[in-house]
Amino acid sequence: MSSLPVPFALRCRRIRIGEKSNDPASIAAGARIGTEQGADIIKMRLTRKPEDIQVIQSAKKPVIALGGPKADDMLEYFMFIQHCIEVGAKGVAIGRNIVQNEDPADFVAGLNKIIHLNGTAEEAYQVYINHSLT
Which residue ranges traverse the bilayer (predicted)? Predict the structure, then answer.
């Protein structure tokens, strides 16, 4: 048996006819399934709704939130990241929003403010726009 953690990423599609895949209850069911299948870490999409806490609670394992589509409004994106952390995500998996950002180091500094320093989205945005000045 390996001592490496087993990550689990699940794309939630419509579970029942007419049910939206952006429904926190549907995503929570996927998180629960991942745990039941033996995952040690769950990587899931969150919806920006307060009900996202259902996803975290259903997983019963650390949840890493997916970073989402390309963001143009950095303050709004930092608000999404703050939401993820506030509902209980242990981190975020971000790709394109870092590598396609004009100032990736400043962007990561803003993320750090929220994720590791318990800052707000507004504080992260200030770090982002002022980071290269410090």
Answer: none
The domain containing residue 4 runs over which residues?
Answer: 1-66
Structure-token pair, residue 107: 């962007």
Q: SS in 3 state form for 44-96?
A: ECCCCCHHHHHHHHHHCCCEEEECCCCCCCHHHHHHHHHHHHHHCCCEEECCH
Mean of the per-residue pLDDT values for the chain? Answer: 87
Residue type, 95: G
Cα distance between residue 22 and residue 52, in whole Å: 10
Which conformational region is residue 32 in: left (phi greater than 0), alpha (psi within -120 to 50 degrees), or beta? alpha
Same domain, yes or no, for 123 and 104? yes
Could you tell me the pTM of the whole model? Answer: 0.83
- Phi, psi values for residue 41, rounded to 5°: -135, 135
User: Residue 1, exposed/middle/buried by CB under 10 A (0-12, 13-18, 19+)?
Assistant: exposed
Both 60 and 74 in a single domain? no
The number of distinct structural domains making up the chain is 2
